[in-house]
Amino acid sequence: MNPDRYAVIGNPIEHSKSPWIHARFAEQTGEPVEYGRILGTIGGFEKDVRAFIEAGGRGMNVTVPFKLDAHALADSLTPRAAAAGAVNTLAFDANGVRGDNTDGVGIVRDIEQNLGVKLEGARILLLGAGGAARGVVLPMFDRKPAALTIVNRTASKAHQLVDQFADAAQAAHVRLSGGAADTVEAGAYDVIVNATAGSLDDALPDCDDASFGPGSLAYDMMYSPQPTVFMQHAQALGARAADGLGMLVEQAAESFFVWRGVRPDGGAVLRELRKILTATA
Ligand code: ATR
Hints:
By secondary structure, the protein is of the alpha/beta class. The chain has helices at 18-29, 45-54, 67-73, 79-84, 103-114, 131-141, 155-164, 166-172, 229-236, 245-260, 266-280, and strands at residues 4-10, 33-39, 57-62, 76-77, 89-93, 96-100, 123-127, 147-151, 175-179, 191-194, 217-220, 240-242.
């Protein structure tokens, strides 16, 4: 039997770990999955996707810079993809192209299952108000935190997110607020997530030192072989710090589940990947 075909599309794409991760998932679950990588054409995303469908492709992961193109291309969107305004998972079937977003579930699962921090009743500080931040809000509400504060360099964008998610916050009984760095609640937060693009150029996002304490988990959505400036800052203030490698593995696990209906063990694959990356760093 020929395996079903999947791929990750992005530009650049050569360093993507997704093919390795999905190969491990396929092995682990025995699912007949073949997973490749496609260098997407800037300005030609739709053509690339249609060509993959023509060639028998069943689904795709979408990464930088095509998540908004994928959102625009999809015939239908899951509620979490619609709320995120971005798509990282495409599934192709008789009903057309379905767009989903597994990034938010990925970070939530990494925090709760791999790092062992419960979000129920937690006070969460979310730094950033771009696409990455927007995608994690609903999956976090699902875990029933006590409070979510959104802080952004451009305060108006944090206010926009607070407006967008006000009804959902009320329904989930979450205290939602946001604005510039000085809008944080007093005292240390349980979880602080860096969803800004700051780590890409070694910039520490504006945040109050009092938000970090020995009981805080400081989570950088970015992965880099060395601790990011945000992680170092948090550790210097006594907090525990984590990078985004687990989120990468867990969003992949959720995509695999979306496509195959089978949930792989992300934790096992994360431990293996971490070992390989540490050995080659
Ligand atoms: P993404 O999809 O990665 O979220 P984005 O939508 O462009 O990308 O959003 C980038 C986020 O990182 C924004 O919240 C941005 O802050 P502004 O809205 O003020 O631009 C934030 N960001 C980028 N560089 C930053 C820096 N050096 N310090 C603090 N925040 C930064």
